[in-house]
Write a structure and sequence with these properties.
This protein is α/β, with parallel strands linked by helices and about 475 residues long. The protein has 14 helices and 28 strands. α1 runs antiparallel to α2 and α7 crosses α8. It starts with a strand and ends with a helix.
Length: about 475
């Protein structure tokens, strides 16, 4: 299948008056959603946006953002969402890296500072709420192979990479996910992840293919408040978000979502235990930007021990583990390559497998367990240390909510581990944690220092920025 009818056109016919976008401004039906997108697409073309042109988006999550994404895809432009916290000096080299000269932003000063030689467009000039009532009976076919998005990796170690996806990558990722987690007309998936992250984008596609609604809350609204206000049925969160919800009594409220998809970072076992004990419908997953989001996910009917894995490969994906323990992936969701100004780089082996850099193992039934990343490992006194092993051991302690271990330079051993700890109570007891680890890891793996979790965790993202924490640890050790 090379082409499909635009899923939005199809949804507008099938689900005409059912909710598609739910936000503080009201509820837009699929019919209205299609009209908004068609009108925005026409305005984009009038402003000279061409097919295959790369267009950067820099704005907070809201319903207009979703409409603009769909409008750009409709005219076969390439959507390039950027971290909304990126300062102008950091944005310029990224725009240059992907040869992008058009920026859509709700921050006028950002446009002036970053694309002086290009175009800066205001989203409010592209999307008019009155367009929702004006019928636009146009039909568009989508080429599954067409370039659709460029999403930057988190860059927790080193500079971020620009991952180019086809429309088919997102389409098949959503189809496979929807076969595993039931989603349909009338359901509501809260957009609690940023649209510059592949986890946020995937919500838009899952809802579009299933007839469910995307809920875009106020930027300042607390997550728990949004869940209650909009009667959310589905939720995607990272472990930090789930931890905060649990501390706020989320599990004790009368109505919880039908499904909570948990990913974006390794999940502490004690957090999972707490969630399962409270009866939360948690689905743990493993995914990566290069595979357009989920690769493996647990299902609703699993034995207790399998629920602590990252699940099995979803439809349209394949997973294997190399002899060295590295997770390899391929399938319909595999990206087109890393975008550079001069072309694409798609690093695959002779059999088409992409090496993720993640370490793990598959059991006999195909359930994946992720143990860490190759590039996180460091050597201390001639011994290999995998930080995730120490982090998992720390998270077994009843007071620990999250832990990140990073190396610091040491004259005698080369490197030594240091831990940043987020506790449930706010009180950190380094001595108790050190004693706790003595029974669980080798002595050389016990951190030489334990620090409180920083109020800001470094450059904004869904994962803790290890490089930023490593520099912070070095500063703390150097301080008298």
């Amino acid at each position: 299948m090379d082409e499909i009818r635009c899923p939005l056109d199809e949804a507008a016919e099938v689900h005409r008056e059912l909710p598609a976008l739910i936000c503080p401004d009201g509820t837009f039906s699929y019919y209205a959603y299609r009209n908004l997108v068609c009108a925005a697409a026409e305005r984009l073309k009038r402003r000279g946006i061409a097919e295959e042109e790369r267009v950067a988006l820099l704005m907070p999550n809201d319903w207009r953002y979703v409409v603009i994404i769909m409008a750009l895809l409709r005219i076969r432009a390439v959507v390039c969402p950027f971290n909304s916290h990126t300062p102008p000096p950091g944005l310029k080299p990224l725009l240059d890296k992907i040869a992008c000269q058009t920026l859509i932003t709700s921050l006028p000063q950002m446009g002036c500072e970053t694309v002086a030689d290009g175009r800066a467009l205001n989203p409010e000039d592209l999307v008019d709420i009155d367009d929702a009532r004006q019928d636009r009976p146009t039909r568009v076919d989508i080429r599954l192979a067409q370039a659709a998005t460029i999403v930057f990796t988190s860059g927790s170690l080193g500079s971020p990479k620009a991952v180019l996806h086809s429309y088919g990558n997102h389409y098949y990722n959503a189809k496979g996910s929807n076969r595993n987690i039931r989603l349909g007309p009338g359901d509501r998936w809260l957009l609690a992840l940023p649209l510059y992250h592949v986890g946020g984008l995937s919500i838009v596609f899952r809802c579009l293919l299933s007839g469910a609604a995307v809920v875009t809350p106020e930027k300042s609204e607390e997550l728990l408040e949004s869940l209650n206000r909009y009667s959310v049925s589905h939720l995607s969160v990272v472990p930090t978000q789930l931890h905060r919800l649990m501390r706020q009594g989320f599990a004790k409220q009368h109505r919880t979502p039908q499904a909570i998809l948990l990913g974006g970072a390794s999940v502490p076992a004690n957090l999972l235990e707490e969630g399962f004990a409270a009866g939360l419908p948690l689905y743990t997953s493993y995914g990566l930007t290069e595979m357009a989001s989920q690769v493996t996910t647990t299902s609703s009917s699993l034995s207790p021990e399998k629920r602590f894995t990252s699940g099995k490969a979803l439809p349209f994906r394949q997973v294997r583990v190399s002899e060295e323990g590295e997770i390899l992936v391929k399938g319909e969701t595999l990206f087109k390559g890393y975008a550079e100004r001069d072309g694409l780089n798609l690093p695959l082996d002779l059999h088409g497998w992409f090496a993720t850099g993640d370490l793990g193992y598959l059991d006999r039934e195909g359930y994946l367990t992720v143990t860490g990343r190759k590039d996180n490992m460091f050597i201390s006194g001639g011994e290999n240390i995998q930080p995730e092993e120490i982090e998992m051991a720390l998270c077994e302690h009843s007071t620990v909510a999250q832990a990140v271990v990073v190396p610091v330079l040491d004259e005698e051993f080369g490197s030594r581990p240091v831990a940043f700890i987020q506790t449930n109570s706010g009180d950190l007891n380094p001595q108790a944690l050190g004693q706790f680890l003595e029974e669980r890891v080798a002595r050389y793996k016990i951190p030489v220092a334990f620090y409180d979790w920083p109020e800001t965790i470094g450059p904004q993202g869904l994962k803790a920025n290890r490089e930023w924490l490593r520099r912070l640890a070095a500063q703390k050790l150097a301080s008298p």
